Structures are given as structure tokens and as C-alpha cells.
């Protein structure tokens, strides 16, 4: 499946079309200038060479020639600047939008929040480690799949509010003609209007740390009624971490979650914990639990993971300020949190024997962060 | 060999040689990193390096090539050639000159030692964007900051020395408008260095304070601003880009007339063009930041100023072509590199013009299109001018001609490989591949394979260059004072090799 695509996508939005047209216009202007300049240069190289007996002329300055080749490029540039300015003013105008989605970059995942209807979820890379480390063959959608794509209606002006939780990221989907840096402390605005239903791919464009390459973006654009159905599906009972529309495969547990009060056994917790750890935590702390000190500390034999349980729960739930350790209390379910902490306390020789229940998580959440 | 001679030397030729040796060393280390980067990118998936290691390699590759290879090479050429070209006995401030150089080996030792520290080398790209560098950077970031301070001190002192030399030590009768263009280009570059480097020093100092002393210049949570980092960095960074190309313009303006056997066309406009580019370089910095969400009218202004740079740059290219036109050309190695420079740098200029168009930049920003663009202006631009300059002046330095056959082999292999390496990167960027990633989707495989093959040929070809230089130092056909049939200027009036002391009064 060798891909020899050499040009920019025309995309599926009015802005991406405008950009493509500008891109091609400038390109052809450059080609025309190149043909003239290199044409003269190669004419001289071929005909005005000493081996052909060429004798050098003596001219070495001419004011009018200089002025001509200063003014003509200036005029060409002015002609290029006019359409560029028009397109720019149009693409920066975020007024009169129909729908707003807040996009937050995290190391290394995206969070989407539909401000108009309260839907909110994380979107993680869904290419397995085995493919990345060449232990199993790469599928055609390698680094092009997420567990939960962004779903958008077509023919609507969608406003994006883009920000970040940690380092600077950049949300880029070429087919939408949308790229916007996600900067902590800033809420940047951009917008799109998708004309064609389909699945569109992109990824983080700004170096944001170790797993910058593993922040894919998948956008599914659908007709408005399908979108409305998706919204209703999202809001009625189905837990947010389970995809309702699943055109891509998913790692989220498909079984209905256990009832909140039910005690989970260590045998139930450990496999779920391992799965959650390898999917979310291992990008920093590594599957071996050895981390990459000092930036990403080891959990194997660590003070937190083998020390007092409340401190461990606190760290996972609320994160640590000023480090890459995020707060996971809203990213994972209580079951997943209980499972992953149980796993961390019993894997890699951390044989504490502790078992954490979803209720413990609930209680810790209610109590809030412990003092440092 | 007497170590003390090299440690304590105040001779401009010795110091020029030291700079060039340092530059060559850094070029090969940086090149080795580039090979490793391309090796990892040969196929999708993680083959040889962890992502964190990959990020360290791109960071150090960038820093070494910019501060270690390109800049010291130009300073080395300035040290060797400016006194010879203006008929001065030495640089104006010889002891400062010695110090400027000897800071550098320490700075680069510090920089390279970060690979062996706990937490390893800086991993946030040579642009050091906050908060990635301030909040998430490894402990070795502090060593990077110290190294950059040393580099800055060295550059500023070097620049002061060059300005003092050019303004005070010209031989009687050599007015400013009679100076060779290489000297003009360096005079202007030196002012850029003095204006730009202190900004960088300020930025990295603010980084240091954010990291250790509780300030939050670049942290939004403390009232600071991550985008301010980018404003400050690029206020240094864009003039820096021209610091790395203007002396190259000067070299090309020496070489093309020599091998065209015709006087440079439009000398006055060439000087004005360099000065205009230098001025414009200070008012275009935000074109590196078009997707950060800066105000739309700021985008428009920076788009216009950026496009304007095409005018003086165009003038230079037109004048070089006009110099060749109706000349009597021959194609020795320096001329071949100069001609390749004119073509390929112009291609880099075209992609630069495309990048200036803000709406299109939204698609190009942070992709391999940008990587292709700046390698065209820095490799086939700056590096080609340095290689051309080395071949051009090597007979003057050593008293021997280099091996022309090897030079031609070096040129053709380099010219083909460099395009094989960097041209497909345009396609990759346009097709949607971001820069600074160790792993990519399968659709980008084909062009990455080609780029990697090109990079290895490019790397191997530079060994021919190294071999040729070493053999020329050790022997070869004796060179006359004039060296080239149609060379003009004071440097060609002294014997080859140039004696240790020239133009003494």
C-alpha cells in the first residue's frame, strides 16, 4: 500500500478548499519565477562558458535593471497578499457558530467537551504497544485509531475552544484545514464547517514531550440526525468511557460495570488494573513499572506504591502539581481507579497485598486532596 | 605539535583554523545524530530508540548544527579572511579573539555531557519551548542553559571584534563601499549578533529562574505566559536565521565573479539588500507563531513584512545570475557548490514565501514541509556556502590545490543526496506528517525510506570532503598567490600559503 501522495489535501471544508487554492496559486507563481530565473542561469551556464570560448563582458551595474527587479516582485507579492488576507479574515472569524466543542490537550491524549450538551470524554491512542514495538504486524490504521473519536455534525459551524492541561499541543486535522495550538492558560478559538460525512484523521502537531507521536485525532462527521441520535445515546445511561458509535475498535471494557456497592475480588481487580495501567500509565511509568527516572519515576518498589495507601490513592486521583503526573479522578471510572491502584501495589514485586475497592475511591474523592 | 601555541595564540589565522576544526568536529557529531534520526525514521514503529531518546537526538542535532557547525564555521572564515581582505595585520582585539574561541570547546563539552547525566539530555527541541522545557525538562536543562550562555558570550565578543576590525583596520584607501562583499556581509551579521544574542541569554535566564527560583515568567498558573517565551525566543531566533545565511551570501558574492571572470553585478544593491534583510529580520519573528492564536491583525502585519523579505533576497539572486550572464565561466568545485547554492537556496526561499502566507501556514506549520524548508536554506544554503568557501580558500590557507576530481565527486554525490534527503520532506509535510515524531502512520513510509537512503549517501559523501581537506593540508599541487585565474582582492596578493603574519606595518 505504498502511498506516493505529494500534495496538500483539498479537504472537506470551505476553509480547507480556500487554503488549497492559495497554496496552488503561490506554488505556480513560484514555479513561473523559477523557470525564468533558472532559465537565464542555465542559459548562461551552457553558453557563456570559457570552454566554449566565451569572453566575459564588462557591464556590472544598471540602476534601471535593479529597480525593475525590485518593483516587479513587490507587485507580485502585493497580488499574492490580497487573497491571502481575505481568506485569513474569513478563517479567523468565529462568530455565529452553531455548536461549541472545547478541546483540551493532555500528555498524551485529547479531551473533548461539548459545551452545548455536556458530553465530555477523553480520546486515547488505540494502536497497541505490540504494533509500535514491531512485535505484531502493523494494521493499515496504524497510529490512526483512537478509543473514542470526536463526533461532529456536517453543515454546521462548529467552534472549537482549544487549550491545554500541561505542555503546548496543537490540534490538527488536515482535511478540516484546522490547526490550533493548545496552550496552557490560553483558550484559543477556531472553527470548521464540514461539508462531507466521513472519518478524518489528524494528530498533535506541536512537540509536547515523550509521546508526542502517539496523540492521534479521529473526527467522524455525520448527518445532523445521526449526530442527534449519537448525542441522545451518549446522554442516556451509557457510561461515558464506552463508545456509543464504534466504527473503530475499542479497548474500553464492554461488559456492564459492576454495581457500585459490590465488592470486587483481587482476581477481578488485577486483570482490569493491568489493562488500565498498560493503556494509560505505562506511557510514562513503563510496562515494567520501572519508569524513566527522574522525569517519570519508577513505581516498582517506590515510596508511594509500597507506602501508605491513602497517599497512593491521593496521588493517582489528584496528580502532582508541576509534574507530568495528572489528576486521573475524572479520566477513569472508580472501578478502573481501584483496579489500577491495586495492580500497582501488587505487581513487579510490590507485594503489599493491598486491595482497593471502588468505594475507597469514592470516599477519597469525597474527602478531596490530602495536604502535601 | 606545540599545544601552547594553539592555547595561547592570538593570531587570526591560527584562531580561524581552530574555529574551522571545531566546526568540522561538531558537524560530524551533529551529522551522526542526523543519521541515527533517519535510521529510526526508515520504517514506522520504534526500531532502535525510545521516543525520549529520539527527542534528545533532535534537540542536540539542532543545537549542534546551528551553534556548533554553521556559526563557528562562519566565524572561522571571518577570522581567516577579513584581515587578509582588508589588509589588516590581525584582528583588532587578538586576546579577546583567543578567549572567544576557547570558550566554545567548554560550552560544547557541557552540552554533549548532558547525554550521560541522570535523566539524559534535553528533549524539548532546540526551540526550548516553555512549559515543556521549564516544567517538564530533565535536570540537564540547566547545563544546556549554561552552555547557551557561554555560546552567547563567545558570539558577542566575536562580533565586537569583527566590527572593531572592519571599522578600524582597513588599509588606507579602502572605503566602506570598496570592501569585498564577504566583509560587508560580516559587518552586518556582527551587528545582528550583538542585537540578537542578548535576547537569547535573557530568555534562558528566565527559564532558569522559572525552573529553580520560583518565578513564573512562562507559567500561566503564576501569571506568566508561555506565548511570551515564543515571542522572546523568535525575536532572537529570526535574526539568528539570517546570521547563518548573510556571511554565506558574502562568500557566494566572492566566488561567482571569480569563476565567471566578470565583476559582481550590482555591488551597491547587494550591500543595500543585505542591510535590508538584516533590518527586516527583526520585524518578522511572529511568523514562527501563526498558529498560537495571536491576533489576526498581527498575523496580517507579520505576513506582509515576511513577504517583503523576498524583495531583497530576490535582488541578490538576480544579481548573481546577472554576474554569470555573458561571463566566461568555469566549473571548479567552489563554483559548483555556489551554483547549487543559488538554485537550491532559491527553492528554500520559495517554500519560505509559501510559509509566509498565513492561511496556508496553518496547514504547513510544524510539519515536514517546514523541516524541508529550513534544511534547504541551512544545508543547501548556509552549509553549501561554507563548503564552497573552504574549497575556494583552501589553496590560500595550505599552499596546495585540493584534489579537483575528489572535489567533483564530493559535489555531485552531495548535490544528489541532499535532494534525495530533503525534497521528499516537502511531500511528507503536505501529506500531513508532523515534525519531531519518531514514529508515523503507514502512509508516510515510502518517502521516509527515500529520505533515509539519501541521508546516508549525504553523510558518506562528507567523508570524501574530510579526506580531501586532510590530503590538501599534507601536500598537493603548489598554489600560486593568485590561486584562481581571475581572483581579485588583497587576499590574493599575499603568497600561498599565507604567511603567519601579513600586512604588518
Described by strand count, sense and barrel closure, the largest sheet of chain A is: 5 strands, mixed
Q: Helix fraction of chain A?
A: 25-40%
By DSSP, the count of extended strands of chain B is 0
Order of helices and strands of chain B: HHHHHHHHHHHHHHHH
Report the average pLDDT across residues of chain B: 96
- C-alpha Rg of chain A, in Å? 28 Å
Count of spatially separate domains of chain B: 1
**Mind telling me the CATH superfamily name of chain B?**
Cytochrome c oxidase-like, subunit I domain
* Backbone structural class of chain A: alpha+beta
Q: Provide the domain count of chain A.
A: 3
Uncertain stretches of chain B: none
- Helix percentage range of chain B: 55-70%
Strand order of the largest sheet of chain A: 3-2-1-5-8
Strand-residue fraction of chain B?
under 5%
Percent strand of chain A equals: 15-25%
Q: Can you tell me the CATH topology of chain B?
A: Cytochrome C Oxidase, Chain A
Q: What's the CATH class of the largest domain in chain A, please?
A: Mainly Beta
Second rung of CATH, namely the architecture of chain B: Up-down Bundle
CATH topology of the largest domain in chain A: Immunoglobulin-like
Q: List segments of chain A where confidence is low: pLDDT < 50 over at least 5 consecutive residues.
A: 239-244, 246-256
* CATH homologous superfamily classification of the largest domain in chain A: Cupredoxins -  blue copper proteins
